[in-house]
Design goal:
- The protein is of the alpha/beta class.
- The protein has helices at about 1-25, 85-90, 115-135, 150-160, 175-185; strands at about 45-50, 55-60, 70-75, 95-100, 140-145, 165-170.
- The protein has a single domain (about 35-185), classed as Alpha/Beta hydrolase fold, catalytic domain (Rossmann fold, 3-Layer(aba) Sandwich), CATH 3.40.50.1820.
- α3 crosses α4 (about 150-160).
- The longest helix is centred in the N-terminal third of the chain and has 24 residues, at about 1-25.
Length: about 190
C-alpha cells in the first residue's frame, strides 16, 4: 500500500513539474502598446470588455457608422492589439466598424495562467458579444481577421457563433495538436497521450 501511495504522489509531482515547465516555456512577455490608431489620424475609443467578474479585455473601438459591418481584429501570440495598426490603417477607410483587442495575458488585458487558442476564442466571443450588445452598432453580423493563434481563435469562434459571417486568417495553425506535438518534441517534452 505504501508503494502505491508513493507512486501516486510521484506521478502527481511529475505532472505538476511538467505543467510548470510547459507554462514557463510558453510564457509570453506582456508588451505595452507602442502605437495607437491616432498615429494614422484615426479616431478611436479605449474600451474595457468584461470576460468575467475579475477579467477584462482592453480594446480599441474604431467606429464608422452604426449601419456599417463590424470587423474584429485578433492579434497573435506574444503580441498586442498594436500589431493590428497596419490592418486598421488599410481597412478603416473602407467604412467598416473595427474592434481590436488584447487577448488575455497580452497587452493591457487581464492575466490568465495558461493562455491558449481556447482562451483566445473565449476572448473573441466576449468581444463580439460586448460590441453586439453595446448599442454602438445596428447590424449584428461580423467579420474576423486573425493572425497566427488569433486566426485559430477566429476559426474556432466562427464555429460557435452564427453571427460571424466571414473569417480571414494569416498563419493560423492547420492542426493545433500536431503543432503542439512538434513543439514538445523540439523541447524534449514527453508525450503521454
Amino acid at each position: 500500500m505504501a508503494i502505491l501511495i508513493w507512486i501516486i504522489v510521484s506521478l502527481i509531482l511529475v505532472v505538476l513539474m511538467l505543467d510548470r515547465l510547459i507554462a514557463r516555456m510558453y510564457r509570453n512577455a506582456r508588451r505595452p502598446h507602442q502605437a495607437t490608431p491616432a498615429e494614422h489620424d484615426i479616431a478611436y475609443q479605449e474600451i474595457r470588455i468584461p470576460v468575467s467578474k475579475q477579467e477584462y479585455l482592453y480594446g480599441w473601438w474604431i467606429p464608422a457608422t452604426p449601419r456599417a459591418p463590424t470587423i474584429l481584429l485578433i492579434h497573435g501570440w506574444g503580441r498586442n492589439l498594436a500589431r493590428m495598426i497596419s490592418t486598421i490603417a488599410h481597412i478603416h477607410p473602407l467604412g467598416y466598424n473595427l474592434l481590436a483587442f488584447d487577448a488575455r495575458n497580452h497587452g493591457s488585458s487581464s492575466a490568465v495562467p495558461h493562455p491558449t487558442v481556447g482562451t483566445f476564442s473565449q476572448d473573441t466571443l466576449a468581444a463580439l458579444h460586448f460590441i453586439a450588445e453595446s448599442g454602438k452598432i445596428a447590424r449584428k453580423d461580423f467579420g474576423l481577421i486573425g493572425l497566427s493563434i488569433g486566426g485559430g481563435a477566429a476559426i474556432n469562434a466562427a464555429s460557435a457563433d452564427n453571427r460571424i459571417k466571414s473569417v480571414i486568417t494569416v498563419g493560423a495553425l492547420a492542426h493545433p495538436v500536431n503543432y503542439m506535438e512538434l513543439e514538445f518534441r523540439k523541447r524534449h517534452v514527453p508525450k503521454f497521450i
